[in-house]
Design a protein that fits this description.
Number of helices: 10
Order of helices and strands: HHHHHHHHHH
Largest sheet: none
Shape: globular
Oligomer: single chain
Strand content: under 5%
Structural class: mainly alpha
């Protein structure tokens, strides 16, 4: 049996910390000291945990605005805008480019259109639609908004990990190409799944009458994440960095819509 020496264990811990801090830097606008060192290989495995971080920040903001007496609609709009700001628009940009590409009837031209940085009409409409759905759904969620926000952000990014792992990447290079060679199957998928399912258990642990909420968060969130990534694969034959972002955003929006059925 092989044992780690103290030095090897410390080095492993430093690598883990660099990888996690690099994921925070890549997926959010949260500033971290450059002296911490960056290691971007394999950061996709941390995406669901980054989702929990983003969701947690949004929960704090939502709670503070509620304490100030802000109405639900205005509060929800500010939370959604902050959601977008925290990611620097990284995933919404993917929604826009993907929508522009899918609007092209010729499948052979779709990737070229998606690579064009110019925002088309369909991309703009998709972005507006997505933000409207998120704001409306969050407004209709009265209780357990913390679970909705954290669950949406985490499931969206778990869906991204699944898309990276199981579907072909359609470009030899691109802003999402570096993720695929470093994804580990099944470890990275199971790691994120364990984290998000653990979050789904919290409502029923707090109150046994929340069984349906926990089941909806677990089963519904998993299904939406899988189906969203599968749908984009079917339309394009694989994924790109843009569709990775689209999977995150649409999974988040649809998850919030699902929870309105229980939490309105």
């Amino acid at each position: 049996m092989k044992y780690f020496t103290g030095q090897q264990f410390r080095e492993w811990g430093r690598q883990l910390f660099r990888s996690l801090s690099s994921a925070v830097t890549f997926y959010t606008i949260i500033p971290l000291p450059a002296s911490w060192g960056m290691e971007f290989r394999g950061i996709a495995r941390w995406a669901p945990m980054i989702g929990l971080l983003i969701g947690g920040i949004l929960v704090i903001l939502d709670t503070l605005l509620q304490q100030l007496g802000m109405p639900a609609l205005t509060r929800s709009a500010l939370v959604v805008v902050s959601w977008l700001a925290l990611t620097g628009g990284l995933h919404l940009d993917g929604v826009i480019d993907t929508a522009d590409g899918l609007a092209v009837p010729d499948p052979q031209r779709r990737l070229d259109v998606m690579a064009d940085s110019t925002t088309g009409a369909f991309g703009a409409m998709a972005a507006c639609t997505l933000l409207l759905i998120k704001t409306a759904a969050l407004t209709d969620i009265g209780a357990y908004r913390w679970a909705a926000l954290m669950g949406a952000a985490a499931w969206g990014r778990w869906g991204q990990v699944v898309a990276i792992a199981f579907y072909p990447y359609l470009r030899p290079t691109g802003k999402g190409a570096f993720h695929k060679p470093w994804i580990r199957i099944p470890q990275d998928i199971l790691l994120g799944l364990f984290v998000v399912l653990s979050l789904s258990l919290v409502p029923v642990l707090l109150d046994p009458t929340n069984t349906w909420l926990s089941l909806t968060m677990a089963i519904g969130g998993c299904a939406i994440a899988l189906l969203t990534g599968g749908w984009f694969h079917r339309q394009l034959g694989g994924h790109t960095g843009d569709t990775y972002g689209a999977v995150v955003e649409w999974t988040e929006a649809l998850f919030l819509c699902l929870l309105t059925v229980i939490l309105h």
